[in-house]
Each structure stands twice: as C-alpha cells, then as structure tokens.
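User: Here's a protein and a ligand (N-carbamoyl-L-aspartate). What would the complex look like?
Assistant: Let me lay out the input and then the predicted complex.
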Amino acid sequence: MTRPELVIKGRVLMGNEAQTICIGIVDGKITVMGKDLDGDEFLDYSKYLIMPGGIDIHTHMRDPGFTDKEDFNTGTMAAAFGGTTTILDMPNTKPMVTTTQQLKDKLDIIEKKANVDYGLYASLTPDSNIKELKELAVGFKLFMAETTSAIPISEDEIRDVLVDPELDGQVVSVHAESPERFRDIEVTDLTTHDDSRPASAEVVAVDTITQMKTSAIMHFAHLTDLMSFEKAFGYSNEITPHHMLLSTSNVHGTKGKVNPPLRNIREQASLFTAFVKAQVGIVASDHAPHTVGEKILPFGEAPSGLPGVETRLPMMLALVQSEQVSLGLVQATCCHNPAKLFSLPKGQIDVGFDADLSIFDMNKTTKIEGDKLHSKCGWTPFEGYNAIFPEHVFLGGEEIISDGELVRKGKGKKI
Ligand code: NCD
Ligand code: ZN
C-alpha cells in the first residue's frame, strides 16, 4: 500500500463515540485509517474533533450579476471559515441559469474564484434542455413562487416538465410555496410577512408536488412547518438554521426577512424539536446575502434573504457542546446526508472518501460577530449566538484554513 503523504491524528466519531484515530491521505483521498500510522507528514490534533468537511447544498453566491452582495471568492471563503468544504450554488444569478450556455459562462466566471468545491444548479423551466444541462449541473432548482430574482413556473408547467424522462435520477430542489395561498396584505414586519406567505402555502405546495409523477429525486428545500415534513415523508427534505433558531419574536426587522418567512416562536420551537428527534434529513443554510444598504430599506421594499454559510456548522457544533443535539445528528444532516443525496464521495471520514476535513477545538465556543465574518454583506441575523469555528480545514488533503487564516486560495474544484 502507498505510504500516506499526510497523516492527521485526532478525535473522530466512530459509531456513537469519538475515538482518537489516524487518517492517512494520498492524492486528496483517505486511503487508510488506524490507531497508529506513519506518513511523510504527520499532524497531531489529538485534542481536537475532526469532522468531514461540511456540505451546504443551498447557497446563493450571487456571481455573476449581484457581486455587490457577494461573489464566488467571498462566498466560498465564508464557507471555508465555517468548516464547509463543498457548496452548491443556486441559479438565480444574473442572467438566471436556464440554458447550457449560461451555465458554461457561469462556470467560466467562477472557476478561479472557488475556495471550496462547488456544484451549480440549473433552473428548471418549461424550455429547459435537461439532457444538456444535466451534464454540467449538479441538479435543478424549481421555484414555485416569486422570490428574490427568480422566475416561478406554474403548476401545469411543473407537471409537464417533471415527467421528462431525462430527469430520471436527477435531484430537483423545490422552493415549495403555492402563490395561490399568499395573502395580499401590507407587509410591514416579520409577522405580516409570515401572514402574507403563510405556512399553509408551503404545506399545499409540498402536497401538490408529491402528487405529481416524476422519476427525478425530489428534494424539498427550507421547510418551515411540521405538516410539510409529514407531507414530504419519503422524500428528501431540508431545514435551515434560521427557521430552527429564529422566529418572528427573537429577531427584528429586515434582518429576519426571508422566504419562506420565519414563523412564530411556537412553530420555531417545534421545528427545533423535530430536528433534535432526527426527523430532518439535511441542514442547509440558504445563504442569501443582501447588502446593508438594501436591508435598511423600509420593510416592504427590502429584499428577502439572509447570510448563513459560515455560521451553519459552527452553530450546530455549539449546540453539540451544550448537549442540545448529538454530534452524530450534526454530521448526518450537515455532511453525510447531503453527500448521499448527490452521490458525492464526501461527507464521511472513511477509506475512499475525499480528504475534506474540518478540525475543531470543542472547548472554544465564541459569540458570532457579523463584522468578523467573511461574507461581503458584512452582517448576520445570528449576532451574539454561540458558535465553534474550525481551527484547521483541509480540502482534498490540502490545508486551506490554518489557525483562522485562509492559507490557500482558489483550491475549489467543480464536483
Ligand atoms: C433568496 C435570494 O435572496 O436569492 N431569498 C430568500 O429569501 N431565501 C431566494 C430564495 O431562495 O427564495
Ligand atoms: Zn434559496
């Protein structure tokens, strides 16, 4: 067997227990694991927890077209500083990614800016050339309702497009809100925003999609209601940290304005409980930054969306440290299940998997400060929340974050 180029020693979750173990790496892959290993280089992080690099399947990196909010360099830098080594980027950039040419152009633009591995979604429309798009896209995004810079398609169009046999085995991520259930009311704060796009609109949308015929793998993005999770039983589902931790009463103003809306504190608490009880498949950030200038507009005019790629995994680990959730659950929802959905050789510390590793000192809980984060937007709705940020991050066996510094830039590759 080839001698490892690099051996990293640290605490790794094996079954239900963290054990001190050596991880041997050759050519960016984990090739051997054992109690004692020798390699060309040896790093001893015995006191630290080693996790698989996080995988965030729902981000809006804004490049091209909205680079005043974020660009692929800053967005993937934020991911890396949060221990996330793979991100999937949504298609509502400018132009919207609907054609193969638009997808190719976007890939060219972002290629050299990527600090973590990435995949791009294409928007699913009635005219999509699915056969061509699926060669380059990681999956498809389906917008059922109007939201920031996205064009929704109608229920009839969705029904038609979902039966296309070219979608067989492809992941379709659904923004499930039925616009027929929206209420035309004046939106002046988080509660009226919630009332205008109520949870019932989501429940109806999930119900509608589950009754459609398709051979695609349907994935429900950012669900906000327990009934939606029930309706989506047997399908892939996702929850965001903000819907689990924030409500219309613990965050105020446009910093909490997002689609689907934050719900009231009771509903939020029930979502958190569902997460703790392992009823949720994937935690994704829906990282959707807007500038401070846009967010200080009057509530009704300010765009929906909030940043979260850097804080997702660190906040989850703080919850592990305070014994509110298990490490196994965090690894499953932030690393393993996302990789499984997209059949990626990632999200697991085991022989044959990519050596994407995030290394944490679990005794270093800090408070989140918006101006210390790396997103271009410069703010967070999670100001003051507990988090544990990684000390070291490895992408394909190469260290990209070391002691709080980005030491290697532009190492991200298309998955
Ligand atoms: C997203 C954005 O700003 O791109 N906003 C949001 O509120 N989540 C769009 C979206 O996914 O709805
Ligand atoms: Zn989104």
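Summary: Residues 60, 92, 147-150, 175, 258-259, 286, 288, 304-305 surround N-carbamoyl-L-aspartate (ligand 1) (CB under 6 Å).
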